[in-house]
Amino acid sequence: MLYFLCHFSDVDECANKEMHGCDGNAMCVNEKPGYKCNCHIGSKLDNTGRSCRTCPNDSWGIDCNMSCACSTAAASRCDPVSGCVCNPGYTGTHCEANINQCLNKTCGAHAECIDQPGIDACQCMPGYRNINTSSESSLQCQDIDECAETSLNDCDQKCNNVDGGYNCTCYAGYHYDSTLRKCVDINECEFKTSKCSHICNNKEGNYSCDCPPGFRLDQDGHTCKGTSQKIVTITLDYTVTENVDWNNQTSKKYTELKTATEQLLYNVLTRVMKDLVSVTVTKMWSGSLHVDTDLLVSGTNSASSIAQGLTALYKARDLALLDQHVTVTNVTVGGQPFHLNGSLCQRREEIEKCLDGQVCEEEGGTCRLVVDALH
């Protein structure tokens, strides 16, 4: 029996184009035995198995086995070799991810980078506007004066422009309510912020002070001081040269004489009565000139003050009323004569007596509590 030892060697068909049927756009791959045709990435074999054709629009990759499914807004096209081609600012297999370009982007002064789908951009911060109209890519941000443009602020009283914005402030007597976004009145009386010593009256944007009966408002407009009121009848040696209707207190002649008399008495009395508030003539009648006056005095020792004032009035020799020299011939207080002679305490007693348990001290004419009266 004969045995034959045979040795077979593979034939590389791909080495000889005439031995394989792959077209020029296909790649021949040798196998043992035989060969096969393959395509480059981005194409696949047609039905003949020998010729390659480019991947259709919805697929890509090796043998076109990858689906494109590109984002409509973020991809420009589907490349048969690399797949979705992303527009600037996007990444990912399907261009589904936004690239935050602001991480590596620097904007100018008062500008900020805004991360947005696609290409990120610099823009002026709120409260600023770009004044570089020649180039949108090169910002020149300048503060907006919202106070100069009423449509840009909602202040109802005062607007203060600040760099990059504004704030609203209010007139005195108001505060800004950030919820209502307006100035509202401060009730100084309710919040105890007024300077009134007694009665506070709130007003829009302000307040006023009042006093209870027996007190008057001091010149500071806040403090109430105690007052004393006395009716004093004064007779002046004065000749009435013109007809005065004594029964008509609104007539011109009566009013002129009344005003001049009040001014004369006030000027003389305040030489010694620093606490005199006012002198009001309530009635006049002729003879010489008889005048009922209402003296309003503040302070704790008003009776002594009135006594000293009336004494000075009696002694005055430089009195002039409507260009006529006059003197005081008589004074009554509460219907009782006031006597010029006597000590200060005696004269004070004619105005107002000290209370029980008190004595008058000659120095100053004040009433002092007697200690023994307490036992």
Write structural notes for this entry:
Residues 10-53, 98-134, 185-225 form the EGF-like domain. The structure is a single chain. By secondary structure, the protein is mainly beta. It has helices spanning 252-269, 302-315, 344-351, and strands spanning 27-30, 35-38, 43-45, 52-54, 59-60, 66-67, 75-79, 83-86, 90-91, 97-98, 111-114, 121-124, 128-130, 141-143, 158-162, 165-169, 174-177, 182-185, 199-203, 206-210, 215-217, 224-236, 276-286, 289-298, 319-321, 324-326, 328-333, 336-337, 358-361, 366-369. Strands 21, 22, 23, 24, 27 and 28 form a six-stranded antiparallel sheet that branches. The chain has a two-stranded antiparallel ribbon with strand order 1-2. A hairpin with a 2-residue loop joins strand 27 and strand 28. Helix 2 packs across helix 3. The longest helix has 18 residues, at 252-269.
Tags for this model:
two-stranded antiparallel sheet; 375 residues; mainly beta; 3 helices; 11% helix; 30 strands; six-stranded antiparallel sheet
Q: What overall form do the CA principal axes indicate?
A: rod-shaped
Bin the strand percentage: 35-45%
Largest sheet: 6 strands, antiparallel
Query: Low-confidence runs (pLDDT<50, min 5 residues)?
Result: none
What count of helical segments does DSSP give?
3
Q: Give the strand tally.
A: 30
CA-CA gap between termini? 169 Å
* Helical residue percent band: 10-25%
Mean residue pLDDT? 87
